[in-house]
Amino acid sequence: MTTLSPIEQSAVEQVSSAPLLAQVQGWAAINSGTRNLTGVAAVGAQLANAFAALPGDVAMVDPAPVEAVDGNGVAQPLGHGRHLHVTVRPEAPVQILLTGHMDTVYPADHPFQAQRFLADGTLNGPGVADMKSGLALMLAALKAVEATPLAARIGYEVVINSDEETGSLSSAALLAGAARGKIAALTYEPALPDGTLAGARGGTGNFSIVVRGRSAHAGRNPEDGRNAIVAAADLAVRLSQIRGPSLAVNPAKIEGGGPNNVVPDLAILRVNFRPATSEDITRAQIHIDQIVAIVASKHDVHITVHGGFNRPPKPIDPGAAKLFDLVKTAGADLGLTIGWRATGGVCDGNNIAACGVPVVDTMGARGGAIHSLDEFLIVESLAERAALSAVTILRIAERGGL
Predict the structure, then answer these.
(1) Taking the mean position of all CA atoms in its chain, how far away is CA 240?
(2) What is the DSSP letter of 191?
(3) CA 309 to CA 287: how far, in whole Å?
(4) What is the C-alpha to C-alpha distance for residues 94 and 99, in angstroms, rounded to an integer?
(5) How many CA atoms lie within 13 A of 180 on its CB side?
């Protein structure tokens, strides 16, 4: 291990004594599935109380309005929990952003609600890796930084949103505002079990395409009908044909229809796109518009497109490469081997990078099998990754940048 500076060593010693596991278990014991607004509010209150230990302003921010298309093809308001926003030393010369999410993918009625230690010492439980552990070690790192004389050199904002698992639609504007003017960002999604970080990420877009036709008797006068299911199926086939090496297209579901003797007048196509580049988004949008027009004309139906590309692709540009190198060097000085690789997953790091801010978005604990009953946290990685964050932040403060 390379010798750390006395200030860095002091921060590492402080995080090693933080009650990280107890904090993770306490927060993970509360179900905070995105749609469980009561549970999200309960976790949000605990987080607000915990982050109040930092010397800044703590606020719970109301979610921005969001709509979703229901089974009747109508856009309805969709409720979300409030988001935690912390601001510390906005006047400092160096400003960074730290983000995480309080929601999980497990709704209140999901069978996966309890925690247990496995034979290998890992902790199995809902949200223990993704990402209650990330929130705990983020806070521990910031507390350690605040206890050093370098703290005065750096200011930061913390955003912990309540809707990351469903696309951050109600927190996108909050994230974009907090990213403004930042020299770097750290996001606390979990690292892989071996510590590998996510590098470049593709983007994503989700669409609900509502097709309205005309009902008629399937036997008496079918020619008077306009079959919305057939039109939606035509849409699905045509959209799937625009996929390519850097653009995945997944028509996932068609809703609608009714009795066998009635020509269906309503169908809703749910489709996901995964673009690797911003050019793929432009190309996909052009194709969507063209295909919708063709199908609407061919089947004599009315089509409305809801949704969009909510996570832009995240390439490794020169700024991101410098931040990754800084994290890698900090890891090496802590005795950790830090590598990264591209992934098809998406997160708030995509949105932050789109604001022009270098971001490493897997600064959380080591763990795996997220979004499943087998989700696990490698417990010893809590202090390890908190130390990595503390040293990284201190070096940004000391250098005055990357």
Answers:
(1) 25
(2) B
(3) 14
(4) 17
(5) 8
Q: What type of residue is 326?
A: L
pLDDT in tens, the chain (402 residues): 458 999 999 999 999 999 999 999 999 999 999 999 999 999 999 999 999 999 999 999 999 999 999 999 999 999 999 999 999 999 999 999 999 999 999 999 999 999 999 999 999 999 999 999 999 999 999 999 999 999 999 999 999 999 999 999 999 999 999 999 999 999 999 999 999 999 999 999 999 999 999 999 999 999 999 999 999 999 999 999 999 999 999 999 999 999 999 999 999 999 999 999 999 999 999 999 999 999 999 999 999 999 999 999 999 999 999 999 999 999 999 999 999 999 989 999 999 999 999 999 999 999 999 999 999 999 999 999 999 999 999 999 999 999
Length of the chain counted residue by residue: 402
Per-residue burial over 138-159, b if 16 or more Cβ lie within 10 Å, else e, is bbbbbbbbbebebbebbbbbbb
Two tokens, residue 367:
């763990």
Beta bridge partners of 94: 154
C-beta neighbour count of 347 within 10 angstroms: 25
